[in-house]
Amino acid sequence: MTIRVLLADDQALLRSAFRVLVDSEPDMEVVGEATEGTEAVRLAKEQRADVVLMDIRMPGTDGLAATRLISADPALDQVRVVILTTFEVDDYVVQSLRAGASGFLGKGSEPEELLHAIRTAAAGEALLSPAATKGLIARFLAQGDGTDDGRDPVRSARLDALTGREREVLVQVAGGHSNDEIAERLTVSPLTVKTHVNRAMAKLGARDRAQLVVIAYESGLVRPRVD
Questions:
Q1: What domain of life does the UniProt record list for this protein's source (predicted)?
Q2: Tens digit of each residue's pLDDT, the chain (227 residues)
């Protein structure tokens, strides 16, 4: 299947470079370009995009708001958002993950990294840059939101629906580990791990593994650490 990619960035030069790169791949194509968030949401629906490469800072509706709109629309539940950032706005990145983005990527990344990120997001199987994403989530959730220890009591209660093994797998997912790595750690098959991950996502209402990581931290199942 061809991965349908939507570019959302207000810089024409960057969009042009991304288009050339994406269209050069046999398994993906650019189906639209947006210069601000509202247009990105509309085109994601009209063009049936699989992955949106979303800049955070755009005029009008920014990438963060657009990500929330995409995540909240049932008609777009198969759309995955990859946030493009300079890593100078880490707090925005974490907000984006909370809003439903599948992960993030630096604009200075190598072409192969961008293509891998698109394929990974489309598959919904793993976080983008898991170690960096985990570090950002830990750092900013550790700051809390001014309420107790930052734990979300609603999400904490929802963890009661998970089995013991699903909790174990969720902890490993929050550690940025792949299915194969988790399988080796827990001495089970990768298929079993994938089944537990999918069940945890369904029970917790998570769109993908990125949201599972956020839920694991916000619920208090995994405690943030700042090294």
A1: Bacteria
A2: 899 999 999 999 999 999 999 999 999 999 999 999 999 999 999 999 999 999 988 989 999 999 999 988 999 988 999 988 775 555 666 777 778 888 778 788 889 989 988 998 888 765 545 555 556 555 555 555 444 445 556 666 778 889 999 999 999 988 778 888 899 999 999 999 999 999 999 999 887 787 888 888 778 887 755 44
> Which residues does 40 contact at the CB level (< 8 Å), separation at least 6?
6, 8, 34, 52, 54, 63, 66, 70
> Using N-to-C axis directions, what is the helix angle for 190-204 and 164-174, rounded to 10°?
90
Tokens 């024409």 locate to 12
pTM for the whole structure: 0.74
Q: Which helix (H) or strand (E) holds 147?
A: none
Task: Provide the CB-side half-sphere exposure for 183 (13 A, CA).
Answer: 11
- Integer Cα distance of 104 and 179 in angstroms: 20
Query: Of all helices (H) and strands (E), which one includes residue 30?
Result: strand 28-34
CB distance 103 to 128 below 8 Å: yes
CA distances from 188 to 92, 98, 102, 170, 192 (A): 36, 30, 26, 15, 7
- What is the residue-wise DSSP string for 153-205? HHHHHHGGGS-HHHHHHHHHHHTT--HHHHHHHHTS-HHHHHHHHHHHHHHHT
> 135: Cβ–Cβ under 8 A, 6 or more apart, which residues?
none
